Amino acid sequence: MDDRDASPATGPLTQRRVTLAGTALVLVGLVLAARAFEVDRIGAEIADADPQLLALAVGVYVASWPLRGRRYADVLDAMGYRADTGFLTMATFASQTANLAIPARAGDAVRAHLIQVRRDVPYPAGFASLAVERAFDLVTVAALAGGSILALAALGEATPWTIAGEMAGGERALTLAVGVGAVAVAVAVGAFALARSGVRTGPALRERAAAYPRVERALDAATEFLADVAVVARRPRAIAAIGLGSLLVWSADVVTAVLVLAALGAELDATVLIVVGTLAVSVGNLAKVLPLSQGGIGLYEAAFTGLVVGLTPVGASLALAAAIVDHALKNAVTLVGGAVAVVSLNVSLSEAAADAETGETARETGSVESTATARDPDAESAD
Q1: pLDDT, tens digit (0-9, with 9 covering 90-100), for 113-171
Q2: pTM, full prediction
Q3: Which of 85, 118, 232, 366 could, after both became Cys, cross-link 78 (CB 3.0–4.6 A)?
Q4: What would the mean pLDDT of 50-67 be, rounded to a whole number?
Q5: What is the residue extent of each domain of the chain?
Q6: Residue 257 to residue 327: CA distance in whole angstroms
Q7: What element of type H or E holds 209?
């Protein structure tokens, strides 16, 4: 039987199955953790939350979405493609909703499909733009984590580890934060370096693979992808604009969590609340990088709770309640925005994901050629 007849979904182990199994295990862990922390107490903490502060948290998070659309427009603009912020905000809503609703993080395929169909951005450029966006996310979140650790040191004479060593689990939590952040930055920087070197070595590799059509087509796709990423890597002003946009997006994410902590009654000095909230959100989102559960459910809550409990006198029940409310609030806004995007764009997320997968497979096998009709001819020039 030809290899192309075998569907990836029929294999013994797929990303979708790993995600579903991981989600089930994490949910079981959450149930056990909730029992240890007393479900009634967690529910009481949530019920006593200040509704005005929660409403403000929702407003801040909603306001961050146009910033996401603007940042993605900057990414595409650096690659030579034009699209309006409103459309890209809706496309981002749709893709993030797909990540929550469809296993194996199908959101990337949905967004690549939408910008290809609606704005003539080829699949390689679409996926490359998402890789650039994710790299900036990793670097920004890691930078926020590192900055919050330095801020902890500035709050007292001791180092962060000395401060945390006096609190249960704090030292381990900070060490984990630094480790995950360092790996994230290394991956992001490595991706940009690979993109730039890949553009230079691509022609030589294709020449060697000329006798192997399948290998040659795969190299063509990879080289095209890396070339699109390299366009951004060569433009300092684009990097600055995208970096600033990323900082604004994740700052809004942090402010949302800080407001949730305040709403639930975390009695902390304002400076400590902001610093610890920043670190908790950063490490929580770095934990979500691993596709072990649907939408990062459980992973975010565990990391967030561990940091808050380890670094402050806040009780475990209140910290877990804050983590649950913060994550639920953000997911709820995403789902509502995704529903609006589905209606306004008149698209089915599952069909878009399937069409994107089919289109990308066809392109890789050579039956579909990507076009770049929307590319700005001036975009290749360096800043």
Answers
A1: 899 999 999 888 888 899 889 888 988 988 888 888 788 777 764 445 554 554 444 45
A2: 0.76
A3: 232
A4: 96
A5: 40-370
A6: 9
A7: none
Kindly state the helix (H) or strand (E) to which residue 16 belongs, with its residue range. Answer: helix 15-37
Mean pLDDT of the chain: 74
Tokens 């499909």 sit at which residue? Answer: 113
User: CB within 8 A of 115, min separation 6: which ones?
Assistant: 76, 81, 83, 88, 91, 121, 126, 129
- Residue 5: per-residue pLDDT: 41
Whether the Cβ atoms of residue 140 and residue 251 lie closer than 8 Å to each other = no
**Nearest of 231, 229, 278 to residue 255 by alpha carbon:** 278
What dihedral do alpha carbons 112, 116, 119, 122 form, nearest 10°?
100
CA distance 123 to 118: 12
Q: Which amino acid is at 67?
A: L
CA of residue 2 relative to chain centroid, distance:
36
d(CA 88, CA 225): 20
Torsion of CA 191, 194, 196, 201, to 10 degrees: -160
The SS3 call for residue 166 is coil
pLDDT value at position 154? 78
Query: Cα 276 to chain center, whole Å?
Result: 21
The kind and range of the H/E element at 327 are helix 316-345
Both tokens of residue 304?
């967030």
